[in-house]
Amino acid sequence: METLRVALVGFMGCGKSTVGPVLARRLGFEFVDLDLDIQETAGRTIPEIFEQDGEPAFRALESECLARCALRSRLVVAPGGGVVIVERNRRLLRSQFHVVYLRAKPTTLAERLRGEADHRPLLRGHPLEDRITRLLRERGAFYDEIASQIVDVDGKSPEAIAEEISSGLKSI
Q1: Residue 118 annotated as binding site
Q2: Which residues, if any, are the signal sequence (predicted)?
Q3: Which of 23, 147, 154, 167 would staple 162 via disulfide (CB 3.0–4.6 Å)?
Q4: Residue 14 assigned as binding residue
């Protein structure tokens, strides 16, 4: 447990940033919301990075921040939902983290993201359910591929999800 790093992956809205601090407290680990780390590193918001520099620049920053997290121990990290589209990130996650895929149904994600779509660059300007379904189709295999543990989150509290993850960690 001393060198353990846990990464919570899954589509935006699945609860990574909510479950992460609960899990970190339970384990006595530090929590890093990778999107906040990226914003701090860049000195700009994620929508600003997307608008000014484009998605490739954002993905490069994301990879850099994730690599820094891989050098730390006793850490729970919540990367953005698209971290898995970059192969180097998938390799790093698989080799350096216990990866927990927080899996949610598209309807659950749409409910949670309905009020936030305008603040999420990849959802803006698209019919919400269609866009979620399409992005999930593109990313779902990646989440499955790197997952050490899969937790279905629909209808569960952050505490119940953290407990399920903790139970899974006892077996490693």
Answers
A1: no
A2: none
A3: 23
A4: yes
